[in-house]
Amino acid sequence: MSTLPVSPGVASPEFNIQDQWVPHPEGRIFVRRWLPAAGASGDPIVLMHDSLGCVALWRDFPAMLCQATGREVIGYDRLGFGQSDPRVGLPSLDFVKEEIDRYFPVLCESLGLGSFVVLGHSVGGAMGVECAAGMEGTTARCAALVSLSAQMYPENRTLEGIRAAREQFRDPAQLERLARYHGDKAKWVLDAWTESWLNPEFAKWSLREVLPRVSCPILAVHGDNDEYGTPIHTDIIRERSGGPVRVEIMADTGHVPQRERPAAVLGLVGEFLAALRPLAPKRL
Fold first, then answer.
1. For the chain, what is the HEC assignment?
2. What is the pTM of this model?
3. How many domains does one find in the chain?
4. What is the pLDDT of residues 90-109, one digit of tens each?
């Protein structure tokens, strides 16, 4: 499956930006690529955004990541988010795995991705775990995973934070802010987050049994003041993963470390990627 035409994008002395839309049977998926002007080195880094996120809400982090690592960085809006086409109906309660089974392989095929690194924030980190555990029907392979503030199950703090956010979004001004990034899809984006996570049936969801199938190296980053989850999630990653894991708990940091402490996150990611080869398999 081929991509739709690529826009020329924006050029700088350090990197070039290209925008394109990948066709999927359910609609077009928006993709932005940051390419080092001097040529990329190493596997590309694929960004997976959070529950209310999109490419634009990564802000300048992808450009900084491209410059810091010398790698191509690829961000995409999940179907229903940002500049991607709207979806009909809310996602199923299996939406984390559904993203990797149903949508992401089409993106990999269209972009010609073989081996890549996933960097996922919040639920994007959970999707990264599913991706690293293996994708059926594709030769694309996750070579390493960086999780930022990822949740491995619906912790009480996570649900409390979502309930509080749902109340805040009763203010029309808050929904208008979300609409700056998602347009007419803003209410759908909010409901896809709150109504999924707060559904009593979603309490059964967990990645504990998925993690043992992840053999690639993982860098798990979490803020000690994360309002949507405690560091128990990094404990689960470290204890359950089938591959080598590096855990970093960032002091005085909340749920969005790449925005709150970008230089520190870039340093950690750079060190992690540079040290991939020396990492030994985890002994069971």
1. CCCCCCECCCECCCEEEEEEEEEECCEEEEEEEEEECCCCCCCCEEEECCCCCCCHHHCCHHHHHHHHHCCCEEEECCCCCCCCCCCCCCCCCCHHHHHHHHHHHHHHHHHCCCEEEEEEECHHHHHHHHHHCCCCCCCCEEEEEEEECCCCCCCHHHHHHHHHHHHHCCCHHHHHHHHHHHHHHHHHHHHHHHHHHCCHHHHHCCCCCCHHHCCCCEEEEEECCCCCCCCHHHHHHHHHCCCCEEEEEECCCCCCHHHHCHHHHHHHHHHHHHCCCCCCCCCC
2. 0.93
3. 1
4. 999 999 999 999 999 999 99
